[in-house]
Amino acid sequence: MSLLGIAVESLQFGVVIRLSGEADLSTVGQLRDALDSQIAGGTRQLTIDLSGLRFADSGSIRALTDAHLALKARGGTLELVHPQPNVARILVLLGIDQVLTVRPQPDSGTAGARMQEG
Amino acid sequence: MGRSRTLDQEFGETTLRVLRETVLAHATAAGMPEGRALDVMLAVHELAANAVEHGGGTGRLRMSVTNRELICQVSDPGPASSGLPRSSTLGSQRPGAAARTSPWPYEPGHGLWLVRRIADHISVNCSPAGSQVTVAFTMLRSAVP
Questions:
Q1: How is chain A classified by DSSP, letter by letter?
Q2: Beta-carbon separation of A90 and B42 below 8 A
Q3: pTM score, whole prediction
Q4: Which of A6, B30, B51, B145 is deepest in the core (most CB within 10 A)?
Q5: What is the ipTM of this complex?
Q6: Which among A93, A91, A52 has a CA at the least distance from the CA of A68?
Q7: 3-class DSSP state for residue B2?
Q8: How far away is chain B from the Cα of A10, in angstroms, using its nearest Cα?
Q9: Would an 8 Å CB–CB cutoff place A22 in contact with chain B?
């Protein structure tokens, strides 16, 4: 069983890939395959939802930045959204937030209240 | 004196997750604040992933704690003794093949580069017999007399 969950959802504005679990050397091949197949299939607006991801190593982050470069070369965009604090720190350490758009977790107060209501 | 071995663990690609959990638990138990314990875990993971990827598939972590610092040493046996298909035949045909037994890559965004950013001290020792990287994290003791 893989450490990494990869769920793909097609929306009007593009494709969202939701990652869950942990992304490391043992899963980087799966991650690259998922990203490559979207780009090869014509997706140009790719959103990577990181909210379910507890850990990502530098190799996995590099797979995401490589996809970003491939999309950019084709006139597309890749956006990272809602990283957990642990993953957000790695993105900052690697300087990823300088290279591509990283949308932080929604305000925790609002999100928490909404979850409690739901 | 003053140094106790707290962990001695071998690892491979499929046991990196277990290694991360073990390192986080030991760093926290040693008194590292939560954020710093996560850094220790990340650094050890990156070094271990390098050992798996570039050092022949397996490696070994030795972790010890002193009053002042937490020290992690990650070593790999080197590609030569790995038994993996990095054959001498291939090597002799390719001038660049020596790079396969060379030190782990050090480029922005790669593991060793990241480790240098988060560890307080790092020393790297590479030889044909394998690579050995030692990183140290200062223990922040609040109640030093």
A1: --SEEEEEEEETTEEEEEEEEEESTTTHHHHHHHHHHHHHTT--EEEEEEEEEEEE-HHHHHHHHHHHHHHHHTT-EEEEE---HHHHHHHHHTTGGGTSEEEPPPPHHHHHHHHHH-
A2: yes
A3: 0.83
A4: B51
A5: 0.86
A6: A91
A7: coil
A8: 30
A9: yes
Q: Do A24 and B16 touch (CB under 8 A)?
A: yes
Scanning every residue of chain A, which has its alpha carbon at the shortest distance from the alpha carbon of B48? A25
Cα Dmax for chain B: 62
* Closest Cβ–Cβ partner in A57, A61, A93 for B45: A57
Give the nearest partner residue to A25 out of B53, B108, B118, using CB atoms. B53
